[in-house]
Each structure stands twice: as structure tokens, then as C-alpha cells.
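Example record for the data management plan.
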Amino acid sequence: MAAKKTVARRGQIQTAEPDESEEKTSRYRAPALEKGLDVIELLVTETRPLTMSEICSRLRRSQGEMFRMVQVLQGRGFLMQDSATDGYYLTDLLFTLGMRQPPTQGLVEIAIPKMRALANEIGQSCHLALYARGEIVIVARMESSEQIGFSVRVGYRRSIAQAVSGTVLFGFQPPDVQAIWLRALPSSVTKGEVDDLFARADAARKDGFVRAGSYFVPAVTDISVPVMRGDRAAAALTVPFLQHANVTKSMSDVTNLSLQTAKDISAQLVDGDSRA
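Corresponding structural encoding:
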């Protein structure tokens, strides 16, 4: 019988019975596939390439077990080897494959022209973020029409607890989805950080947006609004507002224009499909 799992909510720990799908998963094993997935999950969290020895040490497996697995992943294009350190790192193949999913592709195709119009009108860049296993991931961006601007690269990832876009994505989810997202946060996230995430998410739902200083760039104020699909946020549209001499729109103006752009994108999404 599968073990009970814990669910975190606002500092509480609740037990929940495992569902039937989890019990089925525990009965069917594919060791080789699991080793490959372990390598991918390990490298996703690393900021530098890892050597074969480091991979084996982190996963507590022998080189005999992992050598062929790493070679296959490299041959299929999921990994590359750094010539200077002999370490392995993930390519963008997984991200590219994920972007080919019809819901994600459709969302980005709808959003791009509206993001371009927004960036041109406000003279600031903007980007679109989705949720991915406890993190936000940037799937589209539009540069500012001005000579000076601040933008975030496509593929950038950050914990939902450490990003304004994450606050918006988390805040506009039903409680059961929020509970699932909390379980995906790394163990390093403290109870205080979770409580803070809930507080900011409550304020986001009340206001309909988040406007707060960037976590990493003091000169930037992030203005983030939800792109809704039905009763939840499918994405977060964010403007990293940079104050400079050529600014023509105030933060309030940019907030209102961002909200309208998000509504225009939302209006074209299919309510019944919440996969993106």
C-alpha cells in the first residue's frame, strides 16, 4: 500500500490519502528510464556543468550504471559536454519540445503580437512567464522600442517564491493547485517564505496585479498581470519598468495597459484547456 503524503498550506501540514494513479505508478518501474530522468532533474538545478564523477556522486550510483545513460542523452541532444571542464549540461532541447505543445504554442502565438503592441506603446520591454515545477519560465519576450531598456531572456527560470511573475501565477490558482505547487518547491524554501508568498498572492488577487521592486535589479519595478484561462492564470505578463529620461508612460498607465493586454490575450484562449 502506498504511503500517505503531506500537503503544506499556510504553515499547516495535512495528510492525504494517495490517489489511484500514484499507486499504479509505484507498481510499474522502468529503471533505465528512471536513471535518465534522474540525470535530467539533477542538471536542471545546477548552474554549472557536472562531470561524470559528480553526477554519479550526487545520484549515488556507479559510473558503470550511469556512463551509458549519459552517453545516450548526449547522443539524443539533451546533454552537451563542456570542452574546458568535461562537465555535462542540459541543452535547450527539452524547452524546445515543451514549446511545441499545442496549448503553449497557441498561447505564445496569440500573445506575441499583443506584446509587441504593448511594448511599442509603453516604451518598455515585456515578457510572458509560465509555471514549471515550482518555477516560472520565460517563454516569450518583446524588446522595448527605446534605445534603453531591460529585458529577460527566454528560458530564464526562477522559483515562484522569488519572482513577481510567480506571485501572480500562484495567486490566481485554486487552492488545490496551489497545494500541488507548494509540494514542488525545493526543501530550502522556508515556512516564512511560504507565508510571504501567500500574503503577496492574496494582495495580487485583491488588486488584480502585482507592482513591486525587482528581486535582483534595484532600478527595475516589475509590473505583472495574469493572463486568465477560465478561473486560473495560464501565464503572467510582466513589464520590467525601467525609469529613464525618455519614459512617456507612468507606472499607473503601464499597469492599466498591461491589464488590458492580458485581457485581450485571455479573450482568445479556450476556457476549457488549462494545460498552458
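Summary line stored alongside the record: The chain has two domains: 5-91, 98-267.
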